[in-house]
Specification:
Length: 149
């Protein structure tokens, strides 16, 4: 996989992710939607980059705040079920219906739609666990791409 122009490694994203989250006027300016990767560096303003022609899409072109690129506690971390950073890190974390438990349970029931909801195209569980300072693994044994399709 390519690196972003900032040097960070990119994570492949499918055309369906771009179609769902990038405004049409930006999509219209691209030759194709293939070959883009997601940059998760918080200090880089590029959210999607393609090495072959250096096409880039800035985080502020998206209608949603990108978790990895912002620091507002009101931004979403779980785009499928609508939980913000404040929801996840707030009080009530020990409750059976705490956001992280709800997200995990919903993922396991196959209710997540990360590929078209989450700007990264992947499951948010790694970011949720990062916020909670837990082992940043996903709900699946590998990395969440299982339900990113
Ligand atoms: Zn970057």
């Amino acid at each position: 996989m390519d690196a972003c122009k900032c040097g960070a490694p990119l994570r492949a994203v499918g055309a369906q992710t771009l179609c769902a989250l990038v405004p049409q006027r930006t999509l219209n300016g691209l030759s194709s939607l293939d070959g883009f990767g997601f940059c998760d560096s918080p200090t880089c303003s590029v959210v999607y980059f393609r090495g072959v022609d250096s096409a880039s899409i800035q985080a502020d072109e998206l209608d949603v705040l990108v978790f990895e690129k912002a620091d507002e506690p009101t931004r979403l971390v779980c785009y499928c079920f609508g939980f913000t950073v404040a929801d996840v890190t707030g009080p009530g974390r020990d409750r059976p219906d705490a956001p992280d438990r709800t997200i995990l349970a919903n993922c396991r029931r196959g209710l997540a739609n990360c590929a078209v909801k989450n700007p990264s195209g992947h499951c948010c569980m790694r970011n949720v666990r990062g916020l909670l300072r837990q082992d940043p693994t996903c709900c699946s044994a590998t990395d969440g791409s299982a339900h990113a399709r």
